[in-house]
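My hope is that you will study the protein record below before we discuss the fold together.
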Amino acid sequence: MDHIKGTASKKGKVVAISISRKKGIPKTNVSSTQLITNSGLEGDAHAGNWHRQVSLLAIESIDKMRQKGLPTLRPGAFAENITTEFIDLTEIKIGTRLFIGKEAELEITQIGKQCHSKCAIFETVGDCVMPREGIFARVINGGEVFVSDEIIVCS
């Protein structure tokens, strides 16, 4: 990955990619997607020229919620676009770069989010990890991304 600049500090992988064509509906898992520069995931309702083009959540965070009484939760249930593994997303800072697959580069723009209404997950178990452990990014360089692609975190 000769396009990577900076110091690679951590590596992980993509365990799921999820998109939805409309806002407010569950995301569907896909095997690959195209990340579009300055937009987001091709075909995803949340894509656009703004700071939250791509959302990420760790499978380890989903596992926490499974242990609280929702064993059937799947990647995409929290409306995240990319589900990661082996990276502690809670330690990543705004401005950090993530390189995914052969070409894609993301820049972290937001940590967590405010929930304006309680989701079904919160109503069921009294907690939701996305507001605390989800992160958001904008697409600096687009490219095709596949499930199982390596993610390199550069600070």
The longest helix spans residues 59-67.
